[in-house]
Design goal:
With 145 residues, the chain is α+β, with helices and mostly antiparallel strands. The radius of gyration is 14 Å and the shape is globular. A hairpin with a 5-residue loop joins strand 4 and strand 5. Helix content is 24%, strand content 38%. The mean pLDDT is 93.
């Protein structure tokens, strides 16, 4: 999937029990949004998820990789506890890059409305490393299904 500020591409030659993608973005915030969008794309078609419910999220981490891991883990936790799919993500990363604030929106999972693809159980640290790339940033992310 590609937007004006980010894109992600599935990595096919990886473990079949995982959802693996490479994400690219012009800013760190957009990289986090790309990863969140890819995570929910593994589960459903985010275009069918209306932004009816709003959640404020704050997470921290010792470095950017941990911050990204903790952010995606928090989104998966929110999906599991609130029984929702998310489709809208805003991210603000602190200047020290050790915390973020995010506003996410979505709606209750509706089996008659939403495409159910698979369930993402967890994010992993495997291959997770944020790197500078073509004037922006990139990372590979492995999600456990």
């Amino acid at each position: 999937m590609k937007s004006d500020n980010f894109e992600f591409k599935l990595v096919e030659d990886f473990a079949s029990a995982d959802f693996v993608f490479d994400a690219y973005a012009d800013t760190l915030e957009n990289l986090f949004i790309a990863c969140a969008t890819a995570c929910f794309t593994a589960m459903t078609d985010p275009r069918l998820v209306e932004p009816k419910l709003k959640y404020d999220i704050s997470v921290s981490g010792e470095n950017l990789n941990e911050l990204l891991y903790n952010y995606i883990a928090e989104l998966i936790y929110l999906k599991d506890t609130e029984k929702i799919f998310l489709s809208s993500f805003e991210v603000r990363i602190s200047e020290d890059r050790q915390s973020l604030y995010s506003v996410v929106k979505g709606e209750a999972i509706d089996y008659n409305k939403h495409v159910i693809k698979t369930d993402v159980k967890a994010v992993t640290y495997h291959a997770l490393e944020i790197k500078k790339h073509d004037g922006g940033f990139m990372t590979r992310m492995v999600l456990d299904l």
